[in-house]
């Protein structure tokens, strides 16, 4: 849980005692490659800290195609936020791209931490602010960058994804065909 503690401490000051007192609210979850953390149509009941591994967030469009919207890597949080907050069926699926180790907290335990700890209220607010920033930045990149620029950003910020995700998943994330992705890769190699 050291990585989780370091992650939390970067968000807001938390004493060793406060963290120790809250550790029991989290549990360890191991996913094998291909297993789901969240499935579309089911209520998401947990938030996960990725201790190691990679997860892919995707949805199925009206043509029954899987569209990757995000890759979540080590030392980050993930969940289907709308489903988790509203406790309604998720529009997204979250799947392990490799064997993955998570620390998870369920909805009720998180609400209890919020109600008993100003520190955890502060952490929750900081997480929400960060997620909003990430979503705004993602929308900007999606709308203002070329596929090549998006690929270079992925290469720079999450190079491990390019080694572990399928070509199809990367292509749908970039909003291009497999053929266009191959062309982009060839251009970059040159």
Structure, explained:
This protein has 190 residues and is of the alpha+beta class. It folds into two domains: 143 residues, Jelly Rolls (Sandwich); 46 residues. 51% of the residues lie in helices and 22% in strands. It is built from nine helices and eight strands. Strands 1-8-3-6 form a four-stranded antiparallel sheet. Strands 2-7-4-5 form a four-stranded antiparallel sheet. α4 packs across α5. The chain is globular and about 55 Å long. The termini are far apart. The model has no long low-confidence stretch (mean pLDDT 93).
Biggest pleated sheet: 4 strands, antiparallel
Number of domains: 2
Helix/strand structural class: alpha+beta
- Cα separation of the termini: 43 Å
CATH-scheme architecture of the largest domain: Sandwich
CATH topology of the largest domain: Jelly Rolls
Mean pLDDT: 93
Strand order across the largest sheet:
1-8-3-6
Q: Work out the strand percent.
A: 15-25%
């Amino acid at each position: 849980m050291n990585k989780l503690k370091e992650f939390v401490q970067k968000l807001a000051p938390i004493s060793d005692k406060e963290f120790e007192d809250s550790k029991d609210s989290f549990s360890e979850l191991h996913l094998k490659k291909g297993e789901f953390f969240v499935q579309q149509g089911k209520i998401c009941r947990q938030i996960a800290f990725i201790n190691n591994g990679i997860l892919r967030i995707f949805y199925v469009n009206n043509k029954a195609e899987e569209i990757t919207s995000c890759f979540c890597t080590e030392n980050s949080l993930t969940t289907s936020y709308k489903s988790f907050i509203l406790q309604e069926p998720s529009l997204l699926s979250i799947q392990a791209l490799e064997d993955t180790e998570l620390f998870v907290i369920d909805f009720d335990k998180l609400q209890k931490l919020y109600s008993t700890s100003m520190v955890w209220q502060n952490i929750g607010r900081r997480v929400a602010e960060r997620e909003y920033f990430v979503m705004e930045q993602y929308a900007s990149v999606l709308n203002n960058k070329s596929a090549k620029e998006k690929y270079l950003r992925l290469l720079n910020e999450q190079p491990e994804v390019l080694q572990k995700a399928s070509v199809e998943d990367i292509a749908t994330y970039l909003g291009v065909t497999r053929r266009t992705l191959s062309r982009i890769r060839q251009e970059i190699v040159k």
